[in-house]
UniProtKB/TrEMBL annotation:
Family annotation (Gene3D superfamilies): 3.40.50.360
InterPro entries named among the record's database cross-references: Flavoprotein-like_sf, FMN_Rdtase-like_dom, NAD(P)H-dep_reductase
Domain NADPH-dependent FMN reductase-like: 3-140
Pfam families assigned to the protein according to its UniProt record, in alphabetical order: FMN_red
Name of the protein described by the UniProt record: NAD(P)H-dependent oxidoreductase
Domain of life: Bacteria
Organism: Flavivirga spongiicola
Length: 179
C-alpha cells in the first residue's frame, strides 16, 4: 500500500495550517496517510557545533519516515513572507543526512492564513527550493481568508470552490505516484 507522509511546518498547537492538513487527509482513503506532528520530536536548533555530536535521534526517525513515504503533503505557515523557523530548522537537520531528503518523490505543498494571500508568498520560495531537497512538486494549494472559508465543526473547507481546488490538488498528488 502506498503511503503519504503528512505534516505541518507549524509549532503552534492551534495552527490553522494543521487544520488545513486535516481537511486534506480526510479526503484520502484511510490507511494511506501517515500523519506526524513534528512538535512531538525534541529537535535542537541546528548548529555545526551540535552536529559534531551526531544527528539527533529524533531527526533520524523523521528521516526514516521520509524514506518509507511514497509522497508528501506539507502545510506550512508563512511568517513575514517566509517559512517558519521551526520548519526551516527541520529542513536544515534533514539536509545534513541527505541533501535530497525527499528522494525524488511527489509533494503537495499547502498553506493558509487569515489574510487573503493564504501564505502564497512563501509557497513560491518553497517551490523553488523543493528540487534542491529532492522534492518533486506536483501541486500546491493556498487558502486565503481561512476564518471565513473553514468549517471548524466538520474539519473541512466550507467554501465549495476552495474545497474543489483542494480535492483537485490531492487527486493530482495521488495520480502522480499511483501509476
Amino acid at each position: 500500500m502506498k503511503k503519504i507522509l503528512a505534516f505541518s511546518g507549524s509549532n503552534n498547537p492551534e495552527s490553522i495550517n494543521e487544520l488545513l492538513l486535516i481537511s486534506a487527509i480526510n479526503k484520502i482513503q484511510k490507511g494511506n496517510v501517515h500523519h506526524i506532528q513534528l512538535t512531538d520530536y525534541q529537535i535542537p536548533i541546528y548548529s555545526q557545533e551540535i552536529e559534531k555530536n551526531g544527528i539527533p535521534q529524533s531527526i533520524k526517525e523523521i528521516f526514516r519516515f521520509f524514506i518509507e513515504a511514497d509522497a508528501f503533503i506539507i502545510t506550512s505557515p508563512e511568517h513575514n513572507g517566509l517559512p517558519t523557523s521551526f520548519f526551516k530548522n527541520i529542513i536544515d537537520w534533514l539536509s545534513r543526512i541527505d541533501q535530497k531528503f525527499f528522494g525524488g518523490k511527489p509533494v503537495l505543498l499547502m498553506s493558509t492564513s487569515p489574510g487573503a494571500n493564504g501564505g502564497a508568498s512563501h509557497l513560491q520560495i518553497l517551490t523553488k527550493l523543493l528540487p534542491i531537497w529532492g522534492g518533486n512538486l506536483v501541486s500546491h494549494y493556498s487558502l486565503g481568508s481561512f476564518n471565513n472559508k473553514y468549517d471548524h465543526s466538520n474539519l473541512q473547507i466550507a467554501d465549495y470552490d476552495e474545497d474543489t481546488r483542494l480535492s483537485e490538488s490531492i487527486r493530482i498528488l495521488i495520480n502522480s505516484f499511483s501509476k
